[in-house]
Write a structure and sequence with these properties.
By secondary structure, this protein is α+β, with helices and mostly antiparallel strands. The chain has helices spanning about 20-40, 50-80, 135-145, 200, 250-255, 260-295, 305-325, 335-360, 370-380, 385-395, 400-420, 430-440; strands at about 1-5, 10-20, 85-95, 105-110, 150-155, 165-175, 175, 185-190, 210-215, 230-245.
Length: about 500
């Protein structure tokens, strides 16, 4: 096999591959033998037709099959020898196969651009302090108390923000009832951030038996474009008002969450907050790093690659819309705007990947198997030992492995370009916050009664369409005699 590379443009390459006649003849002979076994030609028994007749009747079919086989057998080796990695669309001119003649085919494709000279100087990173503060820990404890709160009836005052009211309701827009807005005796928490703008505020000050029409305006960027910017009326009938009664923040509360005491709960929260804030800090650092690298190292990213990544993003976006019951066609005039947004994102990601590869290659940075395993270990946390091997195996295969490798490569690039994280910022969060938490932790230890559970916060659900009012809230009573295995997320 011989090959020759032609530089067509900045990022476009064409490789011509020539396969020796001997290799062509071997594939042709094998192909005609396979065809001849089942060929039934007039005047000959099955499988006994001469090769000349087989060429006449099956020559075009055999030539096409052999050409495809020779391309598949030789293209990968040719690309590896030429040190080329196609990205985006690939075009193949397979040519014609003939006996006793060398076979040539041509592959045209784009490659990831590389800067002629990497500019890495004067890169500065403002490393964020990811230490959880005493306020962070206190806020998370308050959230856990609210999750375990008991709803108790309110009889001496009307509803206020933060209360839960039981209502029957429906909404109309332009004289028509909106599908999915009907509710009968549903509990709704008066939370201005979770409900449609103006809905929670409109239900403040109501008591059992009150009826009210609450006008609201759907946001201009509302998920359903058919309702975006329109006015609606929510007709509400109140059947009761309840408020949260929070449990005491003590060892008994921690035991109810499956831990030994309040100090252990605060330590658990501290560790989880430290990991969360560290992840966010890493994203900030990554953005800052590539902002500077891209400015110093402009590249022409292949349009074919940007288009491919944009299509992938749009496909995922459409799938998410459909899961919410929203038709992509309903986006109407907003669709081109969304497409352009993803195109910009795709171009940025491709530029980041190109620079990462350039730095990895120029600095001979390598990702070992131990690097990958160590990275998985960092986010397995408190996963039981018997489950760790299976999780590790899953991450080290297929697309998960490639994503993991990209993450480790980025970390190596970061350290190569700007050096390791300053000692005063690395690992500081957990220790500092633990110390702060320890000052307020209860000293008395209760015996362990349950396996430790995660105190990790689950994101609040957001309703779709006009159903932005939350689903009926379950009342959870605090129990001290019945231990729960874990904190409900």
């Amino acid at each position: 096999m011989k090959w020759e590379v032609e530089r067509v443009g900045t990022v476009e390459r064409k490789i011509r591959v020539e396969v020796a006649p001997e290799a062509v003849n071997v594939e042709l002979t094998e192909a005609y033998r396979a065809v001849g076994k089942n060929a039934q030609l007039k005047g000959f028994r099955k499988g006994k037709a001469p090769k000349g007749l087989l060429r006449r009747y099956y020559g075009a079919q055999v030539s096409e099959e052999v050409a495809e086989k020779l391309v598949q057998k030789n293209i990968e080796n040719a690309l590896q020898e030429a040190d080329l990695e196609p990205v985006g669309n690939v075009s193949i001119d397979r040519g014609t196969v003939a006996e006793n003649t060398s076979y040539e085919f041509t592959v045209t494709f784009d490659v990831m651009p590389l800067p002629e000279k990497l500019e890495l100087g004067d890169i500065t990173i403002d490393w964020p302090d990811t230490a959880p503060t005493k306020e962070d820990i206190g806020a998370r404890l308050q959230e856990l108390r609210q999750m375990k709160a008991e709803l108790v009836p309110v009889e001496d005052r009307p509803s206020a923000m933060g209360d839960t009211i039981n209502v029957s309701m429906n909404a109309t827009c332009e004289g028509e009832v909106l599908a999915g807005t009907q509710a009968e005796q549903q509990d709704i928490e008066l939370d201005g951030e979770r409900l449609l703008p103006g809905l929670a505020e409109g239900m403040v000050g109501l008591s059992d038996g009150d009826e009210k029409d609450v006008p609201i305006s759907f946001p201009e960027d509302f998920a359903d474009p058919n309702l975006a910017g329109k006015e609606a009326i929510f007709s509400v009938t109140v059947h009761g008002v309840k408020t949260q009664e929070l449990p005491e923040l003590d060892d008994e509360f921690a035991i109810d969450l499956g831990l030994e005491n309040l100090e252990q709960l605060e330590t658990r929260i501290t560790d989880e907050l430290a990991r969360t804030k560290d992840d966010e800090g890493q994203r900030q650092v990554r953005d800052s790093l590539f902002d500077q690298l891209i400015e110093k190292n402009p590249l022409e990213i292949p349009e074919s690659l940007i288009s491919m990544r944009t299509r992938e993003m749009m496909s995922m976006f459409f799938q998410n819309l459909e899961k919410q019951g929203i038709s992509p066609q309903s986006l109407g005039e907003r669709l081109p705007e969304q497409l352009e947004h993803f195109k910009v994102q795709a171009g940025r990601l491709c530029h980041e990947r190109a620079l990462t590869k350039a730095i990895v290659d120029s600095a001979s940075l390598t990702v070992t198997e131990e690097d990958l395993k160590s990275r998985v270990e960092t986010f397995m946390g408190d996963v039981p030992e018997e489950q760790r091997e299976g999780i590790l195996e899953g991450f080290l295969q297929g697309e998960s492995r490639q994503r993991l490798k990209s993450q480790v490569e980025y970390e190596k690039v970061l350290e190569h370009v700007v050096g390791p994280r300053p000692a005063e910022k690395a690992g500081k969060g957990t220790a500092k916050a633990k110390k702060a938490a320890g000052k307020t932790a209860a000293k008395k230890k209760a015996p362990a009664k349950k396996k430790a559970a995660s105190a990790k916060k689950a994101p609040a659900k957001k309703a779709d369409g006009a159903d932005k009012a939350p689903a009926k809230k379950k009342t959870t009573k605090k129990k001290t005699t019945e231990k729960k295995s874990e904190a409900k997320e």
